[in-house]
Structure formats: structure tokens, C-alpha cells
Amino acid sequence: MRTSYAVGVDVGGTRIACGLVERKGRIIKDAKRPTPKSGPFSVVDAIIELAEEVQAGVQSSEVAGVGIGLPAQIDFLKQSIEFCTNLPLAGVDVRSLVMSRSRQEVTIDNDGNLAAFGESRYGAGLGTRDFVMITLGTGVGGGLFIDGEPYRGSRGLGGEIGHMVIDLDGPPCPCGGTGHIESYLGRPAIAARGREAAQGAGGEAILRAGGGSADAVTAEAVVIASNMDDPVAREILLEAGEILGRAFVGLVNLLNPKLIVVGGGIGEACGFLVERAAEVVASESLAGRRDVRIVQAELGNDAGILGAAALAFDEHDSREGLHR
Ligand SMILES: [Zn+2]
Q1: How far apart are CA 112 and CA 120, in angstroms?
Q2: 147 CA → ligand 1 middle, Å
Q3: Smallest Cα–Cα separation from 110: which of 175, 45, 157, 169?
Q4: What is the per-residue pLDDT for 320?
Q5: Cα(136)–Cα(267) distance, rounded to whole angstroms?
């Protein structure tokens, strides 16, 4: 049976957002709450309650299922959470727990993959079969779409673009590795550059954006100062764009995508960082691949909900033997 709605849940380190989504990508009803910190079962309870809340008044037969995006490394085939930095969910069978209580089909996936899924169905990747998504937020995530399908790798753990090595002697990455993209472009890395700049010559604008205390400077403060044309803040983010561009050169040479979509809070707030990355790709990629477009994501804060709902629709349709 062809269903009209899916529930998309976006579990983040600070908040859980949930929406009832139409097939065309319109969010009919949404609800959110802070992510509970009192253990894994409180997170599961919150997911179930939010999903019930957005489905109030809708027949369950009209709902394709529930998709859940988690900030975690997920074995997609087993639907198990292998590793989760910010929440105590590693090894917790979130899918079965939600499924047994909601009596609905549930599928979990990594939040970066789902951002790519959302952009593919409803955003910047619409109509493009081969594209790369990268999300610049607290962590740096990503997803690959190859020949119209998400590429997940042998166990579903693929797509971790943020953890590609770009400098053998680089700074430590929160994952435990060294010199990964995230160790340069995650919020903590940009904030650290901002704090350093705020204490030096020319750092006044960043200091002001941080509320007057260098220790309180966040990545967002650097972005705010850069959007007011502060040269020091712009320099920090242009350098981040340069690093991102160099990472993209590797991806473009390897995969020859048609499009790269840059999302996440930092990626969406900072157009010139993305433009700088595009310039690097245009001048340094191997010949024949330079027509790749590099654009900002279009779905903003809704990417996680929409991507999770798109996954739920897809899983439903493949169970039912329906084709898109
Ligand atoms: Zn890493």
C-alpha cells in the first residue's frame, strides 16, 4: 500500500527534533525537546513520545514508518549502533526498542547519511545521481550518493568524510585519530582558532562577537564577525575553506561527482568558505573533473527530519515492492 506520511526523527547531542512528513517533503507537524541526559532509555522514551505527538490524528496505516538519524557510527545492515561520541547509545538497540513500543517499522541511520538523503530527495541534490554531502557542525559528517543510491560500504559504516586524514602530523581528532578533516573544521577547532585570534592584535571584532571574553568565543562568534567583514575572522574561515577544498580535490579525483553539497550549521552560515573550497577544486582537481558544482545545502535545520523520513519511505517502498 502506498502511504502518505513518514516520521523523521533527528537525534542530536542537544536536542531531538521530530516531524510528520509528506511524500513531497512537506513537514506537516513537528515537535522537539532537549536531548535527555539521564541515560539511553530516556532518549528512547523521548523519541517514542515525540513520534506519537506528531502522528496524533493520523491513521497508522497511512504512515510508512519511522526513520531515526543518530550522531553515531551505525552498522546499517545490522541496524546496530557501534560507536557514539556524544550520547550513551553505543550497543543500545534503539531500533528494536522504538519498534516494539510504537508498533511501527523503524530504521536507523547515521545523521550525515540522512542529511545526504534529505538533500537528495528534497534539496540541493534533487535530480543528481552522483554527489557528495558534507556537514560542518560540531562534528564533520557526510554521505555519498553514487548512481542514485546512498553508498554505505560493506557494513554501512561508509561516508565518514570528516575522518579522512589530510595531515599526517595534524592535530588530534575527537575520534582518537590524527589530522582528520574534523580536527580542522569541526566547531571546536574553529572556536579554538577564534579564541586565539581574540587575544591577539586585530581580534576585537571576534572578542565582541564572543560577548567580550576570549574564553567564550565560539565557532558561531567567528562566523558572525566574518559576516560583518572582519578581516581576521574571514581569514580563519577562508583558511578553513582552503582545507576543505583540498579535501574535496581528493574526493573529486576519486569519485568524479557532479555535485558537492556543504551543509551543517557552519557550512550553511558561511557562503564564502564554500566558495573558497570551490576555487581550490577548480584549480587543483585532475583534468576533466572540474565541472563539479559545490553548493550550500538547502534544507537547513530540517535536513535531519526530512532525510530520516525519506529513508522511512524508501524502506517501506522496498518492503512493499514499490518503486520510486
Ligand atoms: Zn576523526
Answers
A1: 12
A2: 27
A3: 157
A4: 87
A5: 5
